[in-house]
Design brief:
alpha+beta, rod-shaped, two-stranded antiparallel sheet, 2 strands, 1 helix, 96 residues, single chain
Length: 96
Amino acid sequence: MSEERITRTETIDGNTHTETTIVRDREPSGGGSKTWVLLAILAIVAVIAFVVSAQVSDAEIARDDAIAGAANDVGEAAQKAGDAAEDVARDLTGNE
């Protein structure tokens, strides 16, 4: 929006001077620095989300590996117990 101001000045001699001043409101900018700040914040949030997601994924993989390792250990322990039971049974029956 603009406003026009007209100033008339009359001197002692009777001369009249007119001055016209046009005052315009500043046009809104296209976003400028606000847009860049918002984009920077969005990029930081995306990086943080990626890092957190990767850590959660790594934790799930580690948990799954630990469960698989424990199951393998249980299977080996059961095999050893079965072998020991067979050895005792052979010793008791005298069969080798």
